[in-house]
Write a structure and sequence with these properties.
Order of helices and strands: HHHHHHHHHHHH
Low-confidence stretches: none
Distance between the termini: 19 Å
Oligomer: single chain
Number of helices: 12
Largest sheet: none
Strand content: under 5%
Mean pLDDT: 84
Shape: globular
Radius of gyration: 20 Å
Amino acid sequence: MKGALGDGVVLAVVSGIMNGSFTLPMRFLGRWDWEHVWSLFIAVSCLVMPAVILTVEAPNSWAILAGAPSQALAIAAVAGFAWGFGAIMFGQSVSAIGISLANTLVLAISSSLGSLLPMILLARQRLFEPEGLRILEGVAVAVIGIVFCGYAGHLREKAGGAADRGDLVGKARPLGVALLLATGSGVLSAVFNIGFALAQPVARYGQSAGLSAFASANLIWGVMLGAGSLANLGFCAYLFFRNRNLGRFCAPGGVRLYALSSLMALLWGGSIFVYGAAAQRLGSLGTSIGWPLSLAAGLLLANAIGISLGEWKHVRGRGRASLYLGITILLAAIVLLSGAGE
């Protein structure tokens, strides 16, 4: 048991590292437009990778999925499709304000709403019980952290730091627009969590058909990610049509761009399945240990990457202090929110 617990902790941290670093290649993909990078990223992470994992892990997954409860499958598909728009907003927010601030804001908002909205929608009567009050405390702390990080972003914008983008794909946007994108992404990430919870009959059906807990959960991920890819690829198709730039996929020197976009997909898609393996080993400790470890690792790494790449090089004094204080407060909020599930 102790060995499984240790493995679960390590996998949770690895999942966070993968999730915190997957946007790094976007820094070096400026020769492509945003839609080229994002369409390839989504195709690999939401279509190719889940299909391969489902087939390799349990070749009979597809037959089992065909017989799974139709209502639960529909919920997974609708929630996944809605989440797809959140993924679009996240990708746009990274291009708008950089790796560090975008990851911080989206992670903070999604972790807060991901804890609060399921309780409001599915168990409102528990909101003022100890668990609900702990979530409300965590959300309140997270809001304070978001305010400090937002203020740091405002000071960076005033100092001209928004221009320190390197070869980041996409275009910069005002902080206010980026905050709206991050909020939308956070809300729809919460929808993703709710959909996964409501689609559990699919996983239970998979286990009754002989699949492992890991393979059964992957049935839901496969449906949700596939549905989410429709929103993303549809938006990218619109951008290709509007900008008439589909041919840039065939431009000289594209091998490096294909490789970096695919690396993004492997890191993000892999983080989901690695965390699934971690949760299986952590059992009831998944919420109280694994989730905060994964979130904290991703939050810290994304900021370390952004700072090391010079996204905050024009910011000194109050701006840096506000960022670091905001991150510290958000880490405390993550601990509070995760503790609500103990």
